[in-house]
Amino acid sequence: MFAAFHTFLLSWALMFVILGVVLKPAVEVIMGPVVSRIVFWMTYIALIGAKIYLKRKTGMCESRVRVIGKTTIITGADSGIGKETALAMAYRGSKIIMACRDVEKANKARDEIIRRTENKKVEVHHLDLASLASIRKFANNIIDTEIKVDILINNAGATGLGNKRTADNLHIGMQVNHFGPFLLTCLLAGKMKKSAPSRIIMVSSYLHHCAKFDIDNLNCEKKLNESQVYFCSKLANIMIANELAKKLKGTGVTVNCVHPGLVYTRTWRYLPSKLQPALKYILTMFFKTEFEAAQTSIFAAIDKDLEDVTGKFFCDCKEIKPSHKALNEDLAKKVWEKSAVLVGLKPEEIDF
Ligand SMILES: NC(=O)c1ccc[n+]([C@@H]2O[C@H](COP(=O)([O-])OP(=O)(O)OC[C@H]3O[C@@H](n4cnc5c(N)ncnc54)[C@H](OP(=O)(O)O)[C@@H]3O)[C@@H](O)[C@H]2O)c1
What we know:
Layout lengths: L1 H21 L1 H34 L13 E5 L4 H12 L3 E6 L2 H15 L4 E5 L5 H14 L5 E4 L17 H23 L3 E6 L22 H22 L5 E7 L16 H11 L3 H4 L1 H8 L10 E3 L2 E3 L8 H14 L10
Parallel strand pairs: 1-2, 1-4, 2-3, 4-5, 5-6, 6-7
Antiparallel strand pairs: 7-8
The site of NADP nicotinamide-adenine-dinucleotide phosphate has 28 residues, from helix 3.
């Protein structure tokens, strides 16, 4: 319903943009100058109306909770939504472990976060989700060196990676967005259980609704287009989170998913370059800033009312319903089992 209204509003605004700006000379010739002027002004009213509506819908994390003494791991914390999340959590006093692929870039982001928040407990650790060895090395180091892990935010994600296979013989897009975060979460869940109360957050996407998901093609042996790889991986995020929430029920570890909202970041790079200027314009004009997009992750990580809430999906700091498929428990179980086999999860690695 909400998505349908969004779509209606945008189509309406877009129609007026096309009529009022792009086709203005044609409208003037066919309908005359008066109608043309009306359409032109309607365009501006439509644009301003759409913008006001969408800004009012943007949920902000109102919680004043401080997280001093807590340790938060955020993957992909060197740019986009992840960096804003790290900044907000550092402001609130948490120790931050930025789990990033590009250490040099992450160091620059860390220096900025320390300068802006005056919180010196911000560290960069190398993590490449496209390598199972890197994930295991990162997780083992955390298990050995950190006293506790209170919050894990699986934020990193990527698109436009093509149809390559990684050294682990996994589809690269599925590995970075689904298999990697799945393995990382499984490896750290035991530590988080010992650190309870603790929270695991998966940054998924509302676009999981568009997934044409086939459990027999989880590793994309049959070629999928870029968009479907992304949609399916984001659906898998929710199923894995729900399955883990069930497994961890009663342990003090909660597992929830978020849709951050739409914001122009490199997430959109998989769309054709010709579309990029228009996409950038529309997303920047109508949708969220990175700061706004980070709000639901922050909310899921700290809000007091969510202490015992697990297996839910949030957007704009409110619970929303994921797709029917995302709630299919049998399918989620199969995704879990198949993923465990594909990442070679050993019984001794599961400590929860
Ligand atoms: N932007 C949106 O509209 C939107 C909407 C719904 C959901 N999301 C989700 O929000 C999350 C954050 O995305 P964003 O929009 O902030 O995009 P972004 O600016 O591209 O950030 C993605 C982060 O993930 C990291 N990453 C990519 N591949 C990695 C790998 N192999 N190993 C470790 N880290 C890796 C990136 O690191 P590098 O800098 O090294 O590439 C970057 O830090 C993603 O999960 C995305 O799917 C975004």
